[in-house]
Structure formats: structure tokens, C-alpha cells
Inverse folding.
């Protein structure tokens, strides 16, 4: 019996992997958490360790998801800009040059007084509207605010390239940088960036939002500082790549943007807040519903990454217990056979408070899966598992092989 | 003590890897089989899991053998044609453009009535002889029948290339396709293919074999439809690659053809039928004899793949017991030290009845091999082995390292 109708689900606890913690008696959060459902999957399935990119390389959320979805980030990833723009719902076209931006405060000599304009948290929509659509030469500037002081800029025009530096000097007291390009397309782009930065200051300096901020004693958001240029890559759509469709049940804008760019169905789930209080049941139900429409579903729950960045191992263990309930609801709700892979997109150890290059435990479960002796979910149990050490790039290959969706290579 | 005189033997159970089977109490065929000799090798040697190509990729027999012999199939494999031709004993020269073909039935308007000419099973040798040696311009057509309606075509001539489509429309009722090339060499080749196809119809239409078929109410094999063009790749010979010679003790035409193409000694073993009744003792004796002539011997016993394709786990366990006897006879007959690797070229799970992307258990045994705690041969014992998870491409490297035949990379 081949399982050609079996669905495929990847469930990621964002930043799930961790290191031993003294506060958890030397266990990792995943080892310390009470996870009867993940343990059941480990006992009935096959475990291993997964390097999102390759051993020791700390993955970003975007590169990790690209890799786990089977795209080589070294081939496709030029900078965070495009995914940042996608993440806040901007329409990104292949060839667009995209930047992450900050609203910042500068003085009259273009010295940066506050890189985050006092962590401005309102009025940025109006400020962004004043800049969106600006033309500099034959380049169109598409601009949109994100949360707080963050925003994204798209430069759209002929012969642009991503080989440009940052306008953001990355420290306060320093002068805004005149951007330079390192090739011909980069030079054209740098000129457009510099024009955009100057014009942003002219337009924002006396904008009513900033007048009000000055009156309230707050630093004005009187300039935009782009950084992290990237060109929107020529990625095959998910369906073109695999011959079947997929859905993303994810909480973070960056990953939603990636899903949209791959032309997957990106579902907005009420209650999925991307916070530690997110509704894991709603996420699970969205996974189950999407499985009725697509053979493949990717789900990412953000919470463990937040606790990892906060350096709070007990909170992270609770987040992983939340993931366990999400998995339980998916497994118990399956109406057709499905192969599941549960893992993380990367490690965010509490002791590091940032992404690390440690591999992440992975468990695969479903019809046809070879088993092993592992009975529990977590880093050290998974290290002894039958999957051995695989890479993010292998996950889709293994799932599509298990569900008989792959062509033989050769005869 | 380095073992520079030690021989190297790779013994493959074709399609050996499998998945847990309810009919075998949840064991795989390799786990369920009574294999005292393979178990001894596991106890005395080192075990692991081997992905013929890479994790999750279902390998063909040709690409798997290429990879296990140390050739990168992604670099060398352009299509099945060349190996298909080699497999039926045709002499393939570097640069030849090779096609898989069907004898088919067409009507007067070149519409395909039967893509397999009623699965013709006799007379194809005579039909092939009527086409073999045809000249179209400065291109020579070498043509030979395979089993049933299958055949292979080689185009040999100047400036040909594999960038051509199929003449076979792959569905009945459709018209035979006029082949087009997608580059200059492809266009030259396309012209030769189209001429060959037209001439095949003229020559075969009234051939005595077809007159007889019509009288018997069978569809005539009145055209040849080529597909799957590939160029015979520029593979280094085995000896040029490694600096020592090797022999192939294999049963299947495709792999014999590969061995010949690599200029290895390809031994025809009486009693090696390629069926489940093959004489494993004769295969073992041929391995031992070849070891007297070459430092390296590759042996492949086809049987487990047949039972896998048949979906018969008990038969497959018996086939692996046959492999165990083959290994016993080799180990007991060794006159010089040798390093053995016993594995499969790929998995053919009984539940899939086709090749899958699951890794295959591998055991390596011989002087200098580090050992591990594994005491039995099979998927799940091997998952815990000291080799970890390796790739087909690693096997020759490890064997040549164990036998001190490799130059240091660096100083």
C-alpha cells in the first residue's frame, strides 16, 4: 500500500531548539516540558536532529523556512528586505530592491539622535503615506510602515541591484551614511536611496505627526534610514516546484510574506496572535481545515522563540507544552492519514537570547515511517534517533518520499 | 598496520531497504530474516544508514550505482537512454545520443492506436534487424530490441545533442509527435529522429512479422516511438578515477552496461539468473575469483528488489537470507584480508512496490574498521550504528581510506 493520498504537515515551534539550563536541572526546555503528545509521536515515529541550513550556521526565520520548504537559501537569499516587505503585506515583484527601514530622529546636520525615533508607536501610517509613491528619476519608491519604528522600502525601476550599503549608521551620534553601490546597478540604486533619504527628511521634518510629537516632548520621526538591501529572488512557486499545493498557518509577517511569495495559501487565523498567549487550538483547527484543501500544510507557532529571546527557560518550556497541545489537536483531528514532521525552524537558546547554530530535534510520524528506540521529544532523546542528523533541505524530500509523491531519479 | 593489500568488496541486495511490515510483526524484511552472517558482520564491524543519493530522494538503480561507485549522478546523468541501451548489451560510445523506444501501432494518419503494439512479445528481433544500421544523412541508427515492446535506439554522428523531445505522444489516439530540438545540436538530432520514425513505419508496415500479426488479429508493430533522449556521458573510467581496476558481478543488464561503460570487468556468471532462484553460491564464487584479479569487486543480487516490487515481505526476507548465504560464502572464502560493505542500492519497500527515498542499512567489516554496539543487520539496528547517516557517494571513499588507497587531501 503506497500512501499517495496521505497529507503532509510540518509543525514548527519557532526557535524551539535550546541548550541545557541550570534552572531546569540541566534539561533543555523541550526536555523539561511535559509533552505527552510529542512523546507519543517520538515513540511511534522516528527522531533525529535537523540543521536548518548546515551544522553550526545560525539560521534566520526566513532562510530556515526557505530551506525547510526545499529552497536553497544560498541560491535565493540576498537580504532580509524582500521578506520584510512581504511580511507587512506589500506586493513584491521579482527584481524589486527591498530594504528594511527605521523611522529615526536626526538633527540639522543629519546626525542620528535616536535610531528608533523614541520607539514611535503611532502616526507612522500617516508618515508612510506621505512618502509612498515617491518618484526619484525613473525609480518608484513604495513605502509602508511596519510595527513601531519599523518600515520597508521597495525601489522599483530599470537596472537596479542589491549591491548597496546601508544609510543607517547603526549607532547614535553618527551621521547618516551616504549609500554607495559596489557595482553599476548598485550605484544606480544607491543614488535612488540617497535621494529617497534626503526627500524623506524634507517631507517628514514638518509633518503634522511630528509637530504633535515635538509638542508632546517626543523626538520627531524626521527621516527614514534604509538598510539590508535585497533583491526579490526568482523563486519557483511551491506548486511549480512540487506539483501540489500547500498552505501556511503561520503567525509572523515575515513567514506569511514568504508563503505569499511562494504562492501558497496564507491563512489568517483569528486568535493566532504571534504572542505567548496565542490560541494554539485555533492554529490546529486551521491546519486541519487547510489539509482538506491542500496535500501540504506548514504551521509555525511563534511563542518559544519569544521566550528564548527573553532568556526565560521556564516560559519556553510552557510554550513547548502549548505546542504539544497544538500537535495533539492536529493528530486527534486528522480525517485522513498524514505524515507529520514536528521540529523548529532554528534554535533560540535562552542562554544566548538569539538564534544559534545548534540543530533542532525533529520527529517524523505517520504511515510507513520506520521507528526507533526514542520515546520522548527533546534534544538529547532525538540525538539517538533513527533519522540521524539531517538538514532542513531534506525534510520535504523525506515527506514526499514517505507519501509516494516523488519521481524516481533514474531508472 | 595499513592494509594496502586488502581487497574491497561492495555487496548490494538490490532494493534491500524496507519499511515495517504488519505481516512480519512490525519488522522489516531485513530485520525479520534469519541472517547469522550479516549479523556477525554487524557485530564485528560498523553499521549505519546510507542514502544512495541524498535523504528522501528515490534512486533509480542506475543513479544509485553511479553514486555508490563515486560518480555524481547530478553531474553525469542526462537521461535513461544510454543506460537502457547499455543494459541490453549495445555498445555505447561517448557522445552517442540514446533513446528508449516502444514498438507501437499507428493508423495511416500516424495516430497512435496502441503504444505497445499489443504488448508484442515475439518477432521484435526480426523487426529490429530490419531497422538496425539505417543511415539518415550522416547519422547511423543503431537499434536493438529489449523485452516485449521495448527497444533502444542510438544515433551516432557528428554534432548531435540530447536536447530533443519525444516522438512518443504518451497517449493513445494522439498523433505521433514531430520531434523538435531546443538547440542547434538538438535540431540536427530531431531531424534524424523524425527521419528514423518515418522510415521505421515504411519498413515495418508490411514486414512479414506484422503480416502474421494481422492474420492473427493482433495489432502490427508498425512504428518505433523514441523517447527519453540522453547523451552517453563523459564518465572517467573506473581505473582512471581510482588508480586500480574493478569487476562487476551483477545480474541486471542496466548495471552490467554501466560496468562496461566504466571499463570494469563485467563477469557473466552461469546460474546468476537475476531472478529469485538465482545461484547465490555462483555469485559468491565469482566475487572471490574476481578478487584474485582486481582489488575491487561490486556485486549486486537482484532478488530483494523483485519481492519488493511484488509487495511480498516474506519472500523479500527469504531473498535477504539468500544474500546472507552469499555473504557467508564470500567471507569464508577470502584468501586475503578484505574490507566489505554490505548494503542495498536503494529501498524498494513492499508497502510501496517501488523505489522510495528511505535510506538503506549498511554494514562495513574488515581490518581496521572501528566497531560499534550493533549486533544485528537491519534498518533499526543500523540506525544506531557508528557510521551514522552517510551517502552512497561516501562508500568508495571509506573503503579506499580503510585500505590505505587514498591520497591525503592537504599536507
Amino acid at each position: 500500500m503506497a500512501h499517495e493520498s496521505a497529507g503532509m504537515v510540518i509543525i514548527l515551534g519557532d526557535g524551539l531548539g535550546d541548550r541545557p539550563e541550570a534552572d531546569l536541572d540541566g534539561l533543555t526546555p523541550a526536555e523539561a516540558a511535559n509533552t505527552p503528545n510529542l512523546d507519543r509521536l517520538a515513540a511511534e515515529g522516528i527522531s533525529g536532529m535537523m540543521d536548518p541550513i548546515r551544522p553550526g550556521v545560525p539560521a534566520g526565520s526566513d532562510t530556515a523556512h526557505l530551506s525547510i520548504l526545499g529552497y536553497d537559501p544560498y541560491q535565493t537569499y540576498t537580504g532580509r528586505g524582500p521578506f520584510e516587505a512581504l511580511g507587512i503585506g506589500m506586493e513584491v515583484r521579482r527584481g524589486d530592491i527591498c530594504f528594511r527601514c527605521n523611522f529615526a530622529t536626526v538633527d540639522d546636520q543629519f546626525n542620528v539622535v535616536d535610531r528608533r525615533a523614541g520607539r514611535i508607536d503611532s502616526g507612522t501610517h500617516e508618515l508612510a503615506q506621505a512618502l509612498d509613491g515617491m518618484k526619484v528619476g525613473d525609480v518608484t519608491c513604495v513605502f509602508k510602515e511596519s510595527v513601531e519604528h519599523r518600515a520597508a522600502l521597495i525601489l522599483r525601476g530599470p537596472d537596479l541591484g542589491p549591491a548597496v550599503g546601508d544609510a543607517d549608521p547603526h549607532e547614535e551620534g553618527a551621521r547618516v551614511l551616504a549609500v554607495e553601490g559596489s557595482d553599476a546597478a548598485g550605484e544606480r540604486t544607491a543614488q535612488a536611496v540617497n535621494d529617497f533619504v534626503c526627500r524623506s527628511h524634507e517631507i517628514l521634518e514638518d509633518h503634522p505627526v511630528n509637530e504633535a510629537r515635538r509638542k508632546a516632548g517626543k523626538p520627531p520621526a524626521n527621516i527614514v534610514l534604509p538598510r539590508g538591501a535585497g533583491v526579490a529572488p526568482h523563486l519557483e512557486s511551491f506548486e511549480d516546484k512540487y506539483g501540489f499545493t500547500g498552505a501556511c498557518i503561520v503567525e509572523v509577517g515575515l513567514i506569511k510574506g514568504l508563503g505569499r511569495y511562494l504562492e501558497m495559501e496564507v491563512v489568517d487565523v483569528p486568535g493566532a496572535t504571534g504572542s505567548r498567549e496565542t490560541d494554539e487550538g485555533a492554529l490546529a483547527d486551521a491546519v486541519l481545515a487547510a489539509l482538506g484543501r491542500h496535500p501540504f500544510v506548514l504551521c509555525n507557532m511563534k511563542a518559544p522563540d519569544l521566550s528564548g529571546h527573553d532568556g526565560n527557560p521556564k516560559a519556553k518550556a510552557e510554550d513547548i507544552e502549548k505546542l504539544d497541545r497544538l500537535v495533539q489537536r492536529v493528530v486527534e483531528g486528522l480525517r485522513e492519514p498524514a505524515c507529520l514532521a514536528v521540529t523548529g525552524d532554528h534554535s533560540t537558546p535562552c542562554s544566548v537570547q538569539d538564534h544559534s547554530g545548534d540543530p533542532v530535534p525533529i520527529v517524523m510520524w505517520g504511515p510507513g515511517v520506520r521507528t526507533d528506540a526514542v520515546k520522548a521529544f527533546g534534544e538529547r532523546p532525538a540525538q539517538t534517533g533513527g533519522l540521524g542528523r539531517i538538514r532542513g533541505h531534506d525534510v520535504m524530500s523525506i515527506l514526499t518520499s514517505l507519501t509516494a509523491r516523488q519521481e524516481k531519479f533514474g531508472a
About this structure: The mean pLDDT of chain A is 95.
